[in-house]
Design a protein that fits this description.
One of its GO terms (cellular component) is membrane. One of its GO terms (biological process) is methylamine metabolic process. It comes from Streptomyces spiralis. The protein has 126 residues and is mainly α. The chain has one domain. The protein is 81% helix and 0% strand. It is globular. 28% of the residues are buried.
């Protein structure tokens, strides 16, 4: 399988794993939900986990891949405030946790670009 054929499946696997983690261990995700959002953090945790699983399914299917990839890019942009919140909230934690929270911030850009690349490849194949 060529690398470009694996790319959407790898991205789908990443999203599916993260989505399942939202349900398996929601407390850690609750802490990242910006306080400005209405409702309970657990609701947002479950909603974002379900969205990640749905995006993963869309990426796995060639027929829905382009749309799912564009939605994935938008999702990564949309969850960036949660990563900022986590970095702010964890600024006084031990160094490894602080580093993990800060390390998530620049990771968003390559994820957005990866999703856009999957969308472009899917569009060329359609």
């Amino acid at each position: 399988m060529p690398r470009s054929d694996r790319s959407p499946l790898l991205l789908a696997g990443l999203l599916a794993t993260a989505g399942v983690a939202h349900f398996a261990s929601p407390r850690q995700f609750d802490a990242t939900i910006p306080r400005a959002l209405p409702g309970r953090p657990r609701t947002w945790t479950y909603a974002s986990g379900a969205a990640e699983i749905a995006l993963a399914a869309g990426l796995a299917l060639p027929r829905t891949r382009r749309t799912a990839a564009l939605a994935t890019a938008a999702f990564f942009v949309g969850v960036f405030p949660a990563n900022v919140q986590m970095a702010v909230d964890w600024r006084h934690r031990p160094a490894p946790q602080k580093a993990a929270a800060l390390g998530r911030l620049p990771l968003q850009l390559p994820l957005v670009l990866w999703a856009r690349g999957v969308a472009r490849t899917a569009a060329r194949r359609a």
